[in-house]
Amino acid sequence: MPKNLIYLCLLIGLNTNALPNEKQSVSLNLNNGGKFDVLYHRAESAATGIVLAGLIGYGIEEGIRGGKDGKKKDQLLSYISDPSCKNIFLSSLAEKLKKEGYDVSNSQSSENVKAGHDKLSLNIKINSCGFKLVNTDSKQVSAFIDFKTILYDGNKNPVKQKYIFFGKTKTPFEELLQSKLSIEKEFSSVLKKAGERLANKIVYRKK
Amino acid sequence: MKKIILLVSILVIQACAFTDATLQVQHDESSNFKGPIVEVNPLLFSSPALVDNRDDIDRIGWKKNGFGMQTADITTANPVVDIVSDSIRAGLIQNGHSVVDSSRVSILGSVDRFWFESDMNFWTVEFTGDIQCRLIFVDNNTKEEIYKSDYSGSYSEKSGGGLNKTWQRVMGKAVDNMVEDVMFDEELVEALSSLID
Question: In the predicted model, what is the mean pLDDT of residues B8-14?
């Protein structure tokens, strides 16, 4: 083998080793932190009120349902130390992305993301989190988080998606109240899993 | 004359509420189901063998009139267990696994909920699809259960109104989200990765 060729191979090998291990960066931008809520009576239809008394009937029925949900919300909140939708959700999202080798930062805007740049920006808008009626027949509730995202990945069109994640456990509301300890556990578990899922959606996205 | 046309139109629309609707629900072939399960060494799965464990096996939802009264059934053209089974199979294949008769891992379980709900608000109607199933993964070499979990997929959208095509789309997206729930389950990935040849 000619000496020059050996030298060239060695040079390429050295250069490859010298390349820094580049991390893909992703900036997270939270537009709305959302609020803890219980959607139980409001998850049932308000159609009768609409037909019987139009807009006023709808308003009255929704008001009554909202009031009943408010009471349920207060009952659950007394067992939850951190009712924030964003804290556990965002920390598990960032943690998972870092674990997958991403360089995570917080950003206030997505203006710095332009087509062709190797940078991702994720806008997150959390609508609400808490507990929601998931089975109108058996009256079971599950912990949930409802949010929307816009991912700017350098392509012309950003990827918009909406998510609603439910916990694995479904329980009648009264049983959930009696279980006390599992209220916080179920709530924090769904926030954590949603954060990890969103991170995986970035990791395994179509490129 | 105009009044007669209006009256006839209202009667036609009302009559629609009393006829059953059959939806062609299926997963979206173009959806990206790739998730952490792609990291597991390619495995041979059997096609999911699921039982229908729903509370109401005669319908997947109700057609409702303006009073919210149930007027007719909403059903699917194919059995719901087939819809769920086909979609899981598609998800596994997209993630590099195979679905064969002589498999390493059997998938058993049940479809516990496959429901379409329409909730009328004043200006809009909210359509919601909700699918829940339980999957049990069995190692055919040892005949032991290696993992069991409940999975779900929900999707909802608000619009001024909508008929069969909208309902099909909503249910199809719920199916996609259920498949994603399986393919993104990291505990399942861990259980499958621990299988020894």
Answer: 53
Number of domains in chain A: 1
Check A200 against B36: CB less than 8 A apart.
yes
Q: What is the CATH number of domain B21-193?
A: 3.40.50.10610
Cβ contact (<8 Å) for A46 and B67?
A: no
| pLDDT tens column, A30-62 | 999 999 999 998 877 544 444 555 556 556 666
Q: What is the pTM of this model?
A: 0.81
Residue A143 included in any domain:
yes
| Average pLDDT, integer, range B151-158 | 89
Residues of B within 8 A of A51 (CB-CB) are 66-68
Q: Chain A closest CA to B178's CA: distance in Å?
A: 11
Q: What residues in B contact A196, CB-CB < 8 Å?
A: 186
Nearest residue to B163 via CA among B122, B109, B127: B127
Judged by CB atoms closer than 8 Å, whether chains meet at A204 and B34 is answered as yes
How far, in Å, CA of A40 to CA of B62, rounded? 20
Phi-psi region of B96 (alpha: psi -120 to 50; beta: other; left: phi over 0): left
Nearest to A136 by CA among B173, B115, B111, B127: B115
In a domain, A8, yes or no: no
C-beta separation of B17 from A191 below 8 A: no
Q: Does pLDDT of A194 surpass 70?
A: yes
Verify whether the Cβ–Cβ distance A46 to B121 is below 8 Å.
yes
Residue at A107 is within a domain: yes
Q: What is the pLDDT of residues A68-90, one digit of tens each?
A: 889 999 999 999 999 999 999 99
**Inter-chain contact A138–B67, Cβ cutoff 8 Å?**
no
